[in-house]
Amino acid sequence: TSEELAVYLRTKKQSIYDKVCTRSIPFLKYGSSLRFKKKHIDIWLSNPYHPDLSNYNLKYNGRG
């Protein structure tokens, strides 16, 4: 969840929401809830442009 990710990244929950809004962090959306896979967050921390994250389409600004 976003709360768990904020603790994991040692940041505020609002900064997680800001990154989701700008699509600069990998996330999955189930209904109205956000989910984050630890594996993908670890990859993102080491290299935000890693090919394993291409299925997230981080720069796509449409719905979904």
Measured between the Cα atoms of the first and last residue, the distance is 18 Å
SSE string, helices as H and strands as E: HHEEH
Unreliable spans are 60-64
Helix content: 40-55%
Number of strand elements: 2
- Overall mean pLDDT score? 81
Shape: globular
Strand order of the biggest β-sheet: 1-2
Portion of residues in beta strands equals 5-15%
Secondary-structure-derived class:
mainly alpha
Roughly how many Å is the radius of gyration?
A: 11 Å
Total DSSP helices: 3
What profile does the largest beta sheet have?
Answer: 2 strands, antiparallel
Describe the structure.
With 64 residues, the chain is mainly alpha-helical. Helix content is 41%, strand content 9%. It is built from three helices and two strands, in the order H-H-E-E-H. It has a two-stranded antiparallel ribbon. A hairpin with a 2-residue loop joins strand 1 and strand 2. Helix 1 packs across helix 2. The longest helix is centred in the N-terminal third of the chain and has 9 residues. The radius of gyration is 11 Å and the shape is globular. It starts with a helix and ends in an 18-residue tail after the last helix.
